[in-house]
Every structure is written in C-alpha cells, then in structure tokens.
Amino acid sequence: MTLREPPNSRSVGRCRHPANAKLIADGRYRPGLEIDFQARRVRAQNKDVRLTPKEFDLLRYLVLHAGKPVTHRELLQAVWGPDYGDEPEYLRVFINQVRKKIEANPARPKFIVTEPWVGYRFVNP
C-alpha cells in the first residue's frame, strides 16, 4: 500500500519532515499497521479499521510527525482549529478511541504513546 497526500489536501498532516518521507512512501509504519492517506484507509492487525474524519486527521498528524513528541495544544489546534488549544479532554477521548481501533492492546500502546505532561508521540518502527 502506498501513502500519498492528495495535491489539494488541507494543511492538516502535510509532511514537512524529510525523515518521515520513506515511512510515508512505504505505507507501513510498524508491522500490523498500514495507512493510505489518499484513500483515507487504515488496516491494523490485517483488518480494515473505520476511523471517523477527526480520528483519521489525528492519526495522520501524529504519523507525519512520527518520532517527535507533539504537544496537546499543537494537536488540538491542527485537528480541531485554533479555538481548541485549551481543550485536552477532547484529545484524551479521541486518542483512546484511535488506540482501541489500531492497537493490539490499547492499555499498552505501541503506536501512539503518551508523553507525560507534553502530549503524544507516534513511535517510529
């Protein structure tokens, strides 16, 4: 599966980090997870996963910033807009929903990890 951003995509999730370019081109982030940005499809543990638009945007933003801690404020403003920088409860709920859908064991996440007092990080393979 190949990952490509559509040419007219919104700014959410655009890759500005050349280090992540190979990950995006390959479409595999870790064994058991494939993401197709253009088709907005996700497969986890060899099963298709249905994500809401916000869940997908959240996952995309984290993947495109893989390996780097992303602050709560940055994630909220990138996915929900500038008025949501101080609403971390939205983020906690959505992160937990995404983890339940893509992680083999959501209680011990391997893809989206919490950075205490900072935010979240998508783990590089």
Fraction of residues in β-strands:
15-25%
> Number of domains in the coordinates?
1
Helical amount: 25-40%
Radius of gyration: 13 Å
Structural commentary:
By secondary structure, the protein is an alpha+beta fold. It has a single domain (18-122), classed as Arc Repressor Mutant, subunit A, CATH 1.10.10. 33% of the residues lie in helices and 19% in strands. The chain has four helices and seven strands; from the N terminus they run H-E-E-E-E-H-E-H-H-E-E. It has helices at residues 21-26, 53-64, 72-79, 88-102, and strands at 28-30, 33-36, 41-44, 47-49, 70-71, 112-115, 119-122. The strands form two sheets. The protein has a four-stranded antiparallel beta sheet. Helix 2 crosses helix 4. The protein is globular and about 35 Å long. Residues 1-25 have low confidence and may be disordered.
